[in-house]
Amino acid sequence: MSGNIMIVGVGGQGTLLASRLLGAVLPGMGYDVKISEVHGMSQRGGSVVTYVRYGEKVSSPIIDKGEADFILAFEQLEAARYISYLKPNGKIIMNTQKIDPMPVITGAMDYPENIPEKIKALGIDIIPVDALSMAEESGSAKAVNVVLLGVISKFLGIDTEHFEKAIENTVKPKFIEINKKAYRKGLEYNI
Q1: Which domain range does residue 80 map to?
Q2: Radius of gyration of the chain (CA)
Q3: E-assigned strands of 41-124?
Q4: What is the domain-level CATH number for residue 130?
Q5: What's the pLDDT score for residue 11?
Q6: Which of 15, 73, 161, 174 ranks highest by number of CB atoms within 10 Å?
Q7: Contacts (Cβ under 8 Å, ≥6 apart) of 167
């Protein structure tokens, strides 16, 4: 089995931590894993993309248009922005949160309405998740990334204990319990 996961969000949302956690877990499942560096503007508010590719042997970390099995979107507009990268029968797991990009903040544009419904109308399998609320319930709004990783873990067959060990090895000690709670909330989410 192999797969391509695109993680999309805006600067400050933890896309790089999400890719690092997947990069720590997938090799333990017997996969070769390649992770891209962050693409985009990593300062708060800029669009950020990371790629995670896994399989028996992976040569490149780059995912081209039409190749992503999953798009893990930390924000609605980012989900819409990268639809062209999704494979037919791929899935978008999308945080329902809206973060205004600079053109919306300055009043030059309006934030598009009904993004999840529009994506679904295209025949795309989209799973909207209120990850922000679940992250806040876990103790930090910044744990949206780990909530979404909990949701995607169900599709990837990731063992909870293995993932929690990756959290312990990757996250600063004071954030370990918050991230474990966030992961479990995502894992328990009814799809």
Answers
A1: 3-188
A2: 16
A3: 47-55, 68-73, 86-95
A4: 3.40.920.10
A5: 83
A6: 73
A7: 21, 146, 176, 179, 180, 183
